[in-house]
């Protein structure tokens, strides 16, 4: 799922000059390039991005992260590139500022544990929190074991927090931490390189995309490709630490999706391939993949002048604050109406799956719409998919919430009241948008089935 840029924030820190350590001009270059990619690729407003350089102090960095985290309701991105140090015990990571002393890690640095605590506390309302560390010993952020595989309990211990027993691995919120190196290895910015090594590979992937993975590029896809490229050249292995399904759920637009070659289907994937009504499937016998499979080309569906209307924002710009417990019953009744409208919309996709023969393993409304876009070439399904995501995110601020931190122990009765009052006017707006989307879905289904007839 591509997060809503309007409800997301980013803090990017790149340290290029140091008084007692070697300079890293590649760090600031990478930070500026990532800032532009977040704007151009993701659509993150410039005002939602904070870029800090070698002039930044520890308080300045932590304050910037705090402010961004408090304003985030969807995805918070925090990136650091520079030198990293570890203490004598090899247990704690320190992010070096311009005046860092390599002999005393606690001087002139930001302790990663302090950064993580600010992220956890101020970003409690964020759905996803993505931290990217391109520095030496950055794997300490994930409490990596000597064998290179960190468990959820190890990561919790590294943060000084108890593990959460019995958590649901399908929960769609939480943290993902990406590091350029294991806990005991250095990272590199090669001489003359424009960007630090891991950051450079990530930038290439975001700029060019990955063919064959669809219109959305998950964090897992991107970081696995970074890891593969660095290992091929003998560099330290980048690491990924994630909770729940965050690394697979958190996605960014895949630039290769619009220019990718026809997908190669073989083995298990071929078993699920489906011929859509009114769409011809052509198999070029001259194109063979390395495993002997055939390349399957799905012809595009001709598009008429009609296009579905994007749902857009359905919540008011200025929402009234929640008035307190006296309003609880009415708030709960209005939430029920939102849930019912969403449930009715989900039912519509049973019709979509049946009439357009969507494979059984494609289940959620947004994945159905995305699959139809990939397999028909009809861009209108992506409008449907984006509208679904807007309507799916319906309860933030309206329902009682607990800190969205999968590491922290659950505190009985620790939920907080809603932030905003859910008025009947807002409920009616939501239902109108859901009804319009259902009508657009039905019209798009009819266009596809008419082709068959």
From TrEMBL:
Q: Where, by residue number, does the polypeptide cross the bilayer?
A: none
Q: Report which superkingdom the organism of origin falls in.
A: Bacteria
Q: Name one GO biological process term.
A: proteolysis
Q: Start and end of every Peptidase C14 caspase domain?
A: 9-239
One matching Pfam family is: Peptidase_C14
Q: Which InterPro entries is this protein grouped with? A: Caspase-like_dom_sf, Pept_C14_caspase
Q: Name one GO molecular function term.
A: cysteine-type endopeptidase activity
Q: What is this protein called?
A: Caspase family protein
Species of origin reads Streptomyces lasalocidi
